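Worked example (supplementary).
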Amino acid sequence: MLSELKKSLQKLLKIFNRKKQIQLGFYGPVNAGKTTLANRISLDWLGKEVGTVSEVPHETRHVQKIENIVVTTNNGELKMNIVDMPGIATQVDYKSFKAFGMSEEDAKARAREATKGVIEAIKWLDNVDAVLVVLDSTQDPYTQVNVTIIGNLEARGIPMIIVANKIDLPEANPDSIASAFPQHVVVPISAATGENIEKLYEAIQEHLT
Amino acid sequence: MEIQLDFVSAETLARKGSAEKISFILDKIKRNIIVVLEEALEPQEEAELIEATMREIDAEEFHGIEFYRIDSRAKGLREKIAEYIAGRRHGITIVGPTRLIEAIKREPDYISMLAKVDIPQEEKKKKGGE
Ligand SMILES: Nc1nc2c(ncn2[C@@H]2O[C@H](COP(=O)(O)OP(=O)(O)OP(=O)(O)O)[C@@H](O)[C@H]2O)c(=O)[nH]1
Ligand SMILES: [Mg+2]
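After joint prediction of all chains, the assembly is encoded as:
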């Protein structure tokens, strides 16, 4: 009797929870492809792109929200808000921007914004329900920035999927990401070409809701 | 040029709260000292360290940090409780200014730190003039 009641209560709760939009944060080091992925998802389900993508690091310097995305997979509907974060870094040197042809002044302004962006992204850890950790599969996964991001999510109990991005590139090695973080679900994709993106939607449905 | 490394014992660190610990580390880093801590920082402390670093970065003098945590966390429940009571995580954390540390990289059997030994000409001049 009591267990019956508990069951139906849980069912109700589940429906209630499903109605709620999840705040899905995109975290990762700079240039991993967070905004490219956010754009792809937005294009797939809302028909428009939202953020600017660039080979220059710290392109995203403010948290950008894409609201009311409804994703449908074989397992049903999934409502979410995407929060595309500035990339996390432990250093910002304005001179590195000058290599991309920026003026001294623009480079300094970008560096200042970039440092604020990193702080903003860290503050947002308290406001996300679930996270995609976007990593570049062509890079060494065992960096302190990656370890710190994942450690913070673990410590806060925020569910996550690790996205091994850029698998379209010949030097991509998504397996090294999987072996660096064996305790987590890793989904290899290419945000640029859309390869395997369906798998990612299914994984979000399965692990983050 | 000289490179200074400061080693900080777990006991010293245990006496400091997180905020105090982070300003203690950053203060050294900003004086171009590489710091080796006899403990593994907590992930939250690392996030605070990054935040504090971002606040301190300026175009001329300080461009940020490199750091690496080596965990040798307690496995059993007993050790975990002991660790909790002692208020620290076993391991080592290396933190240094990017102007001195080129990279800290994980190799299969060890952690490797690459330091820069020559300061750019202009900085040398400035130092000499001080
Ligand atoms: N080949 C390839 N390139 C990609 C892929 N995803 C992103 N890129 C490229 O990687 C660079 C960085 O992409 P962004 O989406 O701006 O990366 P980000 O993580 O948002 O970077 P920040 O906002 O600076 O932190 C750009 O040049 C993209 O075109 C991918 O799947 N494959
Ligand atoms: Mg971006």
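Two points are worth noting when inspecting this output. Helices of chain B lie at 10-14, 18-30, 43-56, 77-86, 121-129. Chain B has five helices and six strands.
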